[in-house]
Amino acid sequence: MDEISQLLRMARLEATLDKRCLLAGSTEMDVAAGPPRDIPFHVLLEGECDLEVAGGLHHLTAGDVVIIPSGGRHRIITAGSGTTRSIAERPGATFALTTSTAGGEPVIDLFCGHYTIGAGAGAILFGSLPTPTHVSLFRSEDGRAELLRLSESMRAEADRDGAGSAAIMSAFCTVLIAMVLRTSTAPGAHGRIWTAVADHQLTAIIQEVLARPGDRWTLERLSARMSMSRATFIRRFQAATGMTFGQFVTRARLMTAADLLAGSDLAVAGVAAEVGYRSESAFTRAFRSETGQTPARFRRAHQDSLLPVARA
Questions:
Q1: Does this model's pTM top 0.85?
Q2: Which of 71, 93, 138, 283 is the most buried (most CB within 10 A)?
Q3: What is the CATH number of domain 198-305?
Q4: What proportions of the chain, in percent to the nearest 5, are helix, strand and coil?
Q5: CA angle (155, 158, 164) in 5-degree steps
Q6: CA 41 to chain centre
Q7: Is the dihedral of CA 295, 296, 301, 307 positive or negative?
Q8: Alpha helices, DSSP H only, in 114-267?
Q9: How far apart are CA 283 and CA 271, in angstroms?
Q10: Does domain 3-194 have CATH number 2.60.120.10?
Q11: How is the chain split into domains, by residue range?
């Protein structure tokens, strides 16, 4: 399995399309913060607008996908003169249709939804992404044709909005996150996305660590392999990924550990050894620091969530 597919599987990700927004000019749409493990996303299929989030303003054009890993409150703004319009929502069979009040022709076609992620690997993965994660797929080397086909399919299914639409749109939205995670940060992206760095040597190392997190990954070994000094490797890795190599290895190990705790019968000590920790106590400290739970509590919570519901 390739690394992007592996990460999404470990994240236990579920995609939901909440609404389609056909907004006129001079419209402001506020989006409230959701539950802790709900990650909002927007995909702009047509037009231009601004996204206000975390104290910054980000301009979006057709083909842009934005994910907000922090899950915080944000606002969509369309340009125009005159009185600012608010929004009205009309429920549909599977998602809402949002339009501007006081009439006006739509200037954007925007799909809004959220990803629900697991408390372990999912939280670690999305916590390592910038807020917002903004990728311009139309300007990526291989994204334009793919997104054009996907956008046509999304629009057609949105117009249908009938039996099976929720499942189909969920699948389309899962395709979107996979496209984002494999799209290089240059050009058109804001922030670093470590899952798709442009440096091919570093990409190979990232893939190897994700495949074998329990190996002994040392800076000396990897810098020698890349024929550079230790200091140069440190600078190059951090510039490309936005994190230190040590931080990356820790996250890779803990994502795999969360997956093993949730899906295997290995004892906590066995999981610790499998992902490269020499002691269970060191593993427990690292896991609790990253997830807020001990490995044992995380496993119990996950197992409780899988218990069958009693039927009357």
A1: yes
A2: 283
A3: 1.10.10.60
A4: 45, 25, 35
A5: 125
A6: 8
A7: positive
A8: 121-127, 143-160, 165-181, 200-211, 219-225, 230-241, 245-263
A9: 9
A10: yes
A11: 3-194, 198-305
